[in-house]
TrEMBL record:
Protein's name according to its UniProt entry: Vacuolar protein sorting-associated protein VTA1-like protein
Domain Vta1/callose synthase N-terminal as annotated: residue spans: 18-158
Coarse class of the protein's main subcellular location: cytoplasm
Topological relation to the membrane, as annotated: Peripheral membrane protein
Lineage: Eukaryota, Metazoa, Ecdysozoa, Arthropoda, Hexapoda
Pfam family, one: Vta1_C
Region annotation Disordered: where it falls in the sequence: 163-219
Length: 281
C-alpha cells in the first residue's frame, strides 16, 4: 500500500540528525509502507531524545506523531505494523537483501550509485532495527561494514579514484569473508523496486558521511554445522523458545519475498536451537 508522507515543516537545526531516517522513509512511501512507518518511528524516538523542547522542535515532532498514529490505524490489518516480531523480520530481511545486493556488485567491481545507496540504506535500516533490541553479531558487523563501504566508494568516486572491491585486509592477512548469495539481480521484493539511484550525499549532508577508517572491518556471516544425530527433547527456557519462534517467523517472512537462502538460514538456526539448546554462533 502506498503512503502519503507527513506534511512536515522545515526540520529544526537540533533535529537535523534524524533527516536521514525521514529521507529513507520518504523513498519507501510508495514502495514499502512497513519500512516507511518504522523509519519515521525511529526518527521520532531519536528526535524526542534530542529535542530542546522549543516550540519549533515540539511542533515538528507532534506532526510526526500525528502521522504515525493515523498510519497505524489505517494499516491496523498489517501484521508488520502492529506486531514487532513481524516488523523486525520484515526490516531485517530487506536490510540483508540490500546488503547482499550491494556486496555482490561491489565484489564484481560495479561501483554505481545504486551500490552506494544500497549499502547506505542497509546501514540506516540496521539503526532502525535497534528499536526491537540489540542487533545480532551478524547484523552489527553488516552495519559497520555497510557504513564504511558506502563512505569509502563515495569518497573514491568523488576523488577520481578506483575503489578496491570487497573488504580490505592488511598484507599477508587471509580474508574470512564468506561469499554472499549468488543472486546478482537488483533486490526487488514484491512491491519494492530497485534500490534508489541517489547516493548518500543526496540523503544527508556531506558532513554526515563518515570518514574511511584506517582498519575497515571485515564482513563475517554466521555459520554452524548441524549434527543430524543430535537428540531432541532438550530443556529450553522461555527466552530460547521465543528466539526459536522468531527464527521461524523470519523464515516465513523471507519466503514472502521468494528469498529461499535467508529462509533456510533462519530455519537452520531454529532447528539448531531447538535440538541443542544452544544459540547459533
Amino acid at each position: 500500500m502506498a503512503l502519503t508522507g507527513p506534511d512536515l515543516p522545515k526540520i529544526p537545526a537540533r533535529l537535523k540528525v534524524i533527516q536521514q531516517y525521514l529521507t529513507i522513509a520518504a523513498k519507501h512511501d510508495e514502495r514499502d509502507c512497513v519500512v516507511s512507518y518504522w523509519c519515521r518511528l525511529y526518527a521520532l524516538q531519536k528526535g524526542l531524545k534530542l529535542s530542546s523542547k522549543t516550540s519549533e522542535d515540539t511542533n515538528f515532532l507532534m506532526k510526526l506523531i500525528d502521522w504515525l498514529e493515523t498510519t497505524k490505524k489505517t494499516l491496523h490489518d498489517n501484521e508488520a505494523i502492529t506486531n514487532e516480531v513481524a516488523a523486525q523480520a520484515h526490516l531485517e530481511n530487506w536490510a540483508l537483501k540490500l546488503f547482499l545486493y550491494a556486496d555482490k556488485n561491489d565484489r564484481a567491481g560495479n561501483f554505481s550509485k545504486n551500490v552506494i545507496q544500497s549499502f547506505y540504506t542497509a546501514q540506516v535500516l540496521y539503526d532502525v532495527l535497534t528499536l526491537f533490541g540489540e542487533l545480532s553479531v551478524e547484523a552489527a558487523q553488516n552495519q559497520k561494514y555497510a557504513q564504511w563501504k558506502a563512505a569509502y566508494i563515495h569518497n573514491c568516486l568523488v576523488n577520481g579514484e578506483t575503489p578496491v572491491p570487497g573488504p580490505m585486509k592488511e598484507e599477508g592477512e587471509e580474508s574470512d569473508v564468506v561469499e554472499p548469495s549468488n543472486d546478482d539481480k537488483d533486490p526487488e521484493l514484491n512491491e519494492n523496486p530497485e534500490p534508489p539511484s541517489e547516493s548518500p550525499k543526496d540523503d544527508a549532508p556531506q558532513s554526515d558521511v563518515p570518514p574511511v577508517p584506517v582498519n575497515p572491518p571485515a564482513m563475517r556471516t554466521l555459520s554452524f554445522e548441524l549434527d543430524d544425530n543430535t537428540a531432541c527433547g532438550v530443556d529450553l527456557s522461555v527466552e530460547q523458545i521465543s528466539k526459536a519462534q522468531k527464527f521461524i517467523k523470519w523464515a516465513g517472512s523471507a519466503l514472502d519475498y521468494d528469498d529461499v537462502p535467508t529462509s533456510v538460514m533462519n530455519l537452520r538456526k531454529a532447528l539448531h536451537l531447538l535440538t541443542t539448546g544452544q544459540e547459533p554462533a
